[in-house]
Amino acid sequence: MDGLDVSFTLLAFVLVVAYHLYLYIRINHTPHVVRFSKINMLRILWVDSVLGGKKDVMVVQTLRNWIMSSSFLASTAIIIALGILNMALTAEQQKHTPEALWIMKLSLLAINFFLGFLNFALAVRLYNHLAFLLNIPLNDATYTDFRQFVIKTLNRTAYYYNVGMRHYYFSIPLALWLLGGFWLLLGTLVLVFTLYRLDFGGNDMQWLQTE
């Protein structure tokens, strides 16, 4: 790997870390501008709607859809990860690429999908817990604490799902890295721009803001 390729690679990883550090700061200081925080508010409204009335069919269908989606993505991630790991251990490296570097690139790509599988598996676990929580009879004495616990559990589940999706997104520049550091940097720039649009784009949820 020449000096320019190393520079492209380091810059790409620095961009990803810097963006998520910026996102973390915005979530903690100005959450109202981050789309994920806004959607968390929608989840609170959903929980209140469910706990405030008997909507058993809606709850079952919603949780089923979430579980099916997470299960499919988890299964896909583990299959891809094992396939890439097998490739790293058995396939010949790319021309003009040292074997150790080639294996490292494939290993990082496999680890990325393994982490995606882990997050989606955790999401499935918590969605199954929610299926029980949302069917527990309530009384006035426990309603407030139980509501907060359900909201916290649902938002944590959504966090795992969101992180799992980001591992899928990161697989694109990591796969392009197999072609060289320049392609990794190019893919990272496109990814960071896309994530910014997803995380901060638009003011289509202004109606959620409190006066």
How many helix segments? 6
Helix content, binned percent: over 70%
Overall morphology:
elongated
Catalogue the unreliable spans.
none
Structural Rg: 21 Å
**Largest sheet, strands/sense/barrel:** none
How far from one another are the termini? 56 Å
Number of domains: 1
How would you state the average pLDDT, rounded?
86
Report the order of strands and helices.
HHHHHH
The computed structural class is: mainly alpha
- Strand element count: 0
Proportion of residues in extended strands: under 5%
Question: What secondary-structure arrangement, pairings included, does this model have?
Answer:
Layout lengths: L2 H27 L5 H17 L4 H35 L8 H35 L9 H34 L4 H20 L11
Helix pairs in contact: 1-6, 2-5, 3-4, 4-5, 5-6
What is this entry, summarized?
With 211 residues, the chain is an all-alpha fold. It has one domain. It has helices at 3-29, 35-51, 56-90, 99-133, 143-176, 181-200.
Can you describe what's shown?
It is a single chain. The chain contains 6 helices and no strands. 80% of the residues lie in helices and 0% in strands. It is elongated and about 65 Å long. The chain has one domain. It is mostly helical. The chain crosses the membrane at residues 6-25, 66-89, 101-124, 174-196. It comes from Beggiatoa leptomitoformis. Keywords: Membrane, Transmembrane, Transmembrane helix.
